[in-house]
Design brief:
single chain, alpha+beta
């Protein structure tokens, strides 16, 4: 069963968002997403200083099963990538909510209101599992 921490926000495309106090958000893939992908073997990170729009594909997670786009859940500028994952991509499977992929400086913090809370995201994953 997937975990869904209540302090995070979620996108319908299975990214989690941890909003930091300085207008920056860390983004990763959810437990549901990593379970569906299987063992993660590579991440193609977004380019630093790249400006992305909400729901724009900006990274790729590759697993033994397939490659999957990672979408920017919010508009903004990529300011950091978690390059520490390069030596241990399995951390995405082992602890997806600690293994953030990139951080984005938000263009419009009001976009956070368009994301799902944990209950709404859980309902979405139950629906998609059936």
């Amino acid at each position: 069963m997937s975990q869904t921490p209540t302090h995070l926000f979620y996108s319908a495309s299975h990214q989690w968002v941890a909003v930091e106090s300085d207008g920056v958000a860390a983004v990763g893939i959810t437990d549901f997403a990593q379970e569906a992908l299987g063992d993660v073997v590579f991440v193609e990170f977004p380019a630093l200083d790249k400006t992305v729009g909400k729901d724009e594909a900006c990274a790729v997670v590759e697993s033994v099963k397939s490659a999957s786009d990672v979408f920017a859940p919010l508009s903004g500028t990529i300011i950091e990538c978690n390059l520490a994952l390069e030596s241990s991509f399995e951390r995405i499977n082992q602890s997806p909510y600690d293994a953030w992929l990139f951080k984005i400086k938000l263009r419009d913090s009001k976009e956070i209101d368009s994301l799902l809370n944990a209950d709404a995201y859980e309902a979405l994953t139950v629906e998609q599992s059936n």
